[in-house]
Amino acid sequence: xxxxxxxxxxxxxxxxxxxxxxxxxxxxxxxxxxxxxxxxxxxxxxxxxxxxxxxxxxxxxxxxxxxxxxxxxxxxxxxxxxxxxxxxxxxxxxxxxxxxxxxxxxxxxxxxxxxxxxxxxxxxxxxxxxxxxxxxxxxxxxxxxxxxxxxxxxxxxxxxxxxxxxxxxxxxxxxxxxxxxxxxxxxxxxxxxxxxxxxxx
Length: 201
Fold this sequence. Notes:
The protein is mainly α. The chain has a domain at 52-188: Orthogonal Bundle (Tetracycline Repressor, domain 2), CATH 1.10.357. It has 10 helices and no strands. It has helices at residues 3-19, 26-33, 37-44, 47-69, 76-93, 95-101, 106-113, 117-132, 141-160, 169-188. The protein starts with a helix and ends in a 13-residue tail after the last helix.
């Protein structure tokens, strides 16, 4: 990524934190970056393309930190749980992610995030090693896709909607351990002859 592109993404990120994601316009980003709106569109595409580029950059940085955080966690299901808990906390801690997912713009951002190829790739890169580390697991490609989709939706939901008043990390851990871990364990125990999620494809 060029320094000029970084400057534009930095400018957009600053606008998201200051103004909110949905209220930030291409004119705001161009002004903050010190270029014209025409130049912004010509070089970097639509405002939504810039938003997705910012989201991807910030999420890739968070994914690298998550990988370091999970280095000592070997159990596949627990690795997913700990990864989700880490990510939920980081979304609320990091200014850009907080602006995207914990504000009044959360629905706008979430709708685009769950359909973003780059974000799905990041989620898959985090989940696939856990799956492949499971002894004897031969999860099909469709099941892997479903698992990535489900976990990404859960992550965005937990990050954007904290839950009942007073609910904290221990409550999220309990829910994930009680509900998610058995589902992941059951999925990883499937054999190629088993039906895939939701029946035959």
